[in-house]
Amino acid sequence: LMLDIKTVDIPSAFTAFNTVRLLVPVAELARGNVSTTLSLTTFLDRHMNPLLNSLLGSGRLMSNSVEINNSETFEKISTILKNDKFKVLSLNDLDFDFEVRNGRVYLKPFDIKIGQHKLNIQGDQGVDRTMNYTMLMNIPKSELGSGVGSALDELTSMASQQGLSLDFGESVDVGFLVTGTFLDPQVKPVFGKGVGAITEQVKEQVKEQVEEKVEQVKQEVR
Question: Which residues contact 77 (CB under 8 A, 6 or more apart)?
Fold first, then answer.
């Protein structure tokens, strides 16, 4: 299957295509038009429906503007940053590549604009609605809303729990490790000085989670 779609309405695509609903559930919350190129191969069941776990392909998605409302993930990020602006996201100049393998969509690292600053996103999500994302951003203090002191105190406390002592200066470098499911996302802030340092912290957090999962499996086997 090869597609080259120009300017399709996101709600219409979500309603019309079962594959979109399963692979990209966040589309249910999005408004706007997107263009996409997509190349897919898949096995079919006896009813000629695609077996989603066998999907293999790649593509690119573009949009001048997309709005996402009522995202549980960004509701939690908004609470952490004490700024309601993250509850309704207006994403400008969206342009990213993705791959589809074994029932999961893998997003290659890309930047989007939220207001006057950039958010870097990478990760994957599955037909089972699980997700593993990292989001990196630099936030000016002015973007932390009216409760600046409280927000900074809370972020400093969170960083301290990770063994870090932060001097924010005029802005905050912060990453978010997003796991769980779309309906129940687990959002954990990760800190460092610069994207490189945050990326290393994220890798460490992921390593710890994998080790915890392995240990849990071992206990269950015993």
Answer: 86, 135, 176, 187
Report H helices in 82-222: 148-161, 195-221
The full DSSP string for 121-152 is EEEEEETTSBEEEEEEEEEEGGGG-S-HHHHH
Local confidence pLDDT in tens for the 222 residues of the chain: 677 778 878 877 766 666 666 677 777 778 888 888 888 888 888 888 778 778 888 988 888 888 888 889 989 988 888 777 778 888 888 888 989 888 888 998 888 877 666 788 889 998 888 999 988 887 777 766 555 556 667 777 776 766 666 666 677 778 888 999 988 999 988 876 544 556 566 666 655 655 565 566 556 556
Q: Yes or no: say if 71 and 88 are a contact pair by the CB < 8 Å rule.
A: no
- Strand arrangement, sheet containing 2-9: 2-9, 30-41, 56-69, 88-101, 104-114, 117-126, 131-140, 171-180, 185-191
Residue with tokens 């979109």: 20
Provide the total of helices (H) and of strands (E) in the chain, helices listed first: 5, 9
CA angle 134, 14, 188 (to 5 degrees): 20
Token pair of 121, please?
């996103």
